[in-house]
Write a structure and sequence with these properties.
Belongs to the short-chain dehydrogenases/reductases (SDR) family. InterPro entries: NAD(P)-bd_dom_sf, Sc_DH/Rdtase_CS, SDR_fam. This is LAMI_0H07096g1_1. By secondary structure, the chain is α/β, with parallel strands linked by helices. The protein has one domain: NAD(P)-binding Rossmann-like Domain (Rossmann fold, 3-Layer(aba) Sandwich), CATH 3.40.50. It is built from eleven helices and seven strands. Strands 3-2-1-4-5-6-7 form a seven-stranded parallel β-sheet, sandwiched between helices. The chain binds nicotinamide-adenine-dinucleotide. Nicotinamide-adenine-dinucleotide binds next to helix 3 and helix 9. Nicotinamide-adenine-dinucleotide (NAD) binds next to helix 3 and helix 9.
């Protein structure tokens, strides 16, 4: 059967899409990506991919020594892979302290030729395994402060700075003064927060109520921010990993017989029968950061867990 519309259509060269119209770009040249938990295991691989796509990096972490080490390693990675000159700045920062986060975010452009960061990869966080009825309230509160409130603080600070930049631009442009009420538009701004499958299911056998609460909070916070900030063009999404074989988890599972049994228990619950490698999150991150690939994706939680939550 022929398609009448296609058959009758005159070739219309003017409207022929170019490759750039149909193929998304994952390049991040000219952008600064803020990576929190920048000296962590997952961040390590994600940062390598970000550099390879041309992004400058601002690494935030509470662990000052490991931050410097992470920067040196990334520069070495860039050198070995002939990526040319890369720029990586490091920022000691407790993500659960709103005032410090604000201070750091506002200082970042000073080390990046005035570029205001519009890409975020938020990985900072930690887990504690404590039975719920024995959990010290202060310890639980501290975990929620870092994992959940920290997620809000970094998004707030970056958005405030981005909106302020748009307003400054408008105030010096007579053309846009006439537009008067126009909202700031930030079509490249994309925030990716690392949640966890623990925000959707309850892990077993280890008890981790505060962590699970905090990650469920992150996933719903992402939806709330996505709805509020869609009017500015800022997209907010989360990636929720299952168990990842990072240096940290490898140390836990290879350190004792108990650890090995724990890994067996975990992987027996994964349809794909194994833990994830950090590189298996790179594609999702680049998709979500790309303003052409994921321009219509916001408020989404991408669960990447080898099928864990299906069982
Ligand atoms: N490893 C896994 O199996 C797994 C699974 C699901 C989700 N996640 C999540 O992925 C993210 C990264 O995990 P990872 O495996 O790379 O762990 P990691 O411990 O290697 O990295 C986390 C980083 O966050 C930093 N951090 C902790 N508290 C901080 C604070 N108050 N302020 C600033 N930085 C702080 C740590 O110093 C560390 O460098 C975390 O949010 C974690 O909850 C991990």
């Amino acid at each position: 059967m022929t398609n009448a519309i296609v058959e009758s259509a005159e070739p219309d060269r003017a409207s022929m899409p170019s490759l750039a119209d149909v193929l998304p770009s994952f390049r991040l040249d000219g952008h600064v990506t803020v990576v929190t938990g920048g000296s962590g295991g997952l961040a390590h691989t994600l940062c390598q991919a970000l550099l390879a796509q041309g992004s400058e990096l601002a690494l935030l972490d509470i662990s000052v020594d490991r931050l410097e080490y992470a920067r040196l390693e990334l520069e070495e990675f860039a050198r070995c892979n002939k990526l040319g000159e890369v720029r990586v700045s490091t920022w000691p920062c407790d993500i659960g302290d709103a005032a410090i986060v604000d201070e750091v975010v506002h200082a970042i452009p000073l080390k990046h030729d005035g570029i205001v960061p519009d890409k975020l990869v938020h990985t900072a966080g930690f887990c504690q395994n404590v039975p719920a009825h024995e959990y010290d309230p202060k310890a639980a509160e501290n975990l929620v402060r870092v994992n959940l409130m920290g997620s809000l603080y970094i998004c707030q600070s970056m958005t405030k700075q981005l909106l302020a930049k748009c307003r400054r631009r408008r105030s010096v442009s007579s053309e846009s003064r006439e537009a008067g009420e126009a909202l700031p538009q930030l079509p490249n701004a994309s925030f990716v927060l690392i949640g966890s499958m623990s925000g959707c299911i309850v892990n077993t056998p280890q008890p981790q109520v505060a962590y699970n609460m905090s990650k469920a909070g992150v996933i719903h916070m992402v939806r709330s921010l996505a709805c509020e900030w869609a009017r500015y063009g800022i997209r907010v999404n989360s990636i929720s990993p299952g168990y990842i074989a990072t240096a940290l988890t490898k140390k836990v599972i290879s350190g004792s017989q108990e650890g090995a049994a724990l890994q067996q228990e975990w992987t027996s619950r994964v349809p794909m029968g194994r833990m994830a490698e950090p590189r298996e999150f790179v594609g999702a991150m680049l998709y979500l950061l790309s303003s052409t690939a994921s321009s219509y994706t916001t408020g989404e939680n991408m669960v990447i867990d080898g099928g864990y939550v299906c069982w």
